[in-house]
Amino acid sequence: MYIPDIPDNSLTNEITQIVELSKKLEEKDYYFEFFQTEDEEKIISWEKENSIIIPNSVKDWLRFTRGAILADDIARIGGINGFEFGCDYVPDEMVIIGQIIGDGQLIGFSKETGEFMWETHADIIIFDSFASFLNEVVIRMLEKS
After folding, report:
1. Would 140 be classed as within a structural domain?
2. How far apart (Å, rounded) are the C-alpha atoms in residues 30 and 98?
3. Which of 6, 35, 71, 127 could form a Cys-Cys staple with 30, CB 3.0–4.6 A?
4. Is 89 helix (H, G, I), strand (E, B) or coil?
5. In the predicted model, is pLDDT for residue 128 greater than 90?
6. Domain region containing 39
């Protein structure tokens, strides 16, 4: 499994936990994939093209990887090329950056407030930060270990 360098930023602790659990769970035949770091110029370009500011915590994740698949279906977090918005079944303000639990639940952020959002079967859960969401991923990974 390729693992990018862990950056020294606001998500260092969460990323470190995810990486360590990924190594442990990979030994139990769970599938993981981390991609290379997102290019800073692409992040800036995406923001300009879409007139949307990506929250700093999401940028910190992109500075680690431009996409990841965690423990088969716990979470799939895409890079900026996979960001979507304007979907019929989520709030107009939500920028979708991935899925969780493998059954179509979406994760993203509000392009208006920057709040992190989890769409779970037509309900929206608001997290106070992307780090809080990643901590939820860590808990789900611990349940599999």
Report:
1. yes
2. 19
3. 71
4. coil
5. no
6. 12-144
Query: How far is CA 60 from each of CA 72, 122, 131, rounded to the nearest angstrom?
Result: 23, 28, 10
Give the highest mean pLDDT range of 33-47, 80-94, 97-111, 118-132: 33-47
Quote the CA–CA distance of 40 and 68 in Å, as a whole number. 18
| pLDDT tens string 75-105 | 999 999 999 988 877 889 999 999 988 777 8
In a domain, 2, yes or no: no
Predicted local confidence at residue 85, as pLDDT: 87
For tokens 């442990």, the residue is 24
CA–CA gap between residue 80 and residue 95 (Å, rounded) = 10
Q: What is the mean pLDDT of residues 19-41?
A: 94
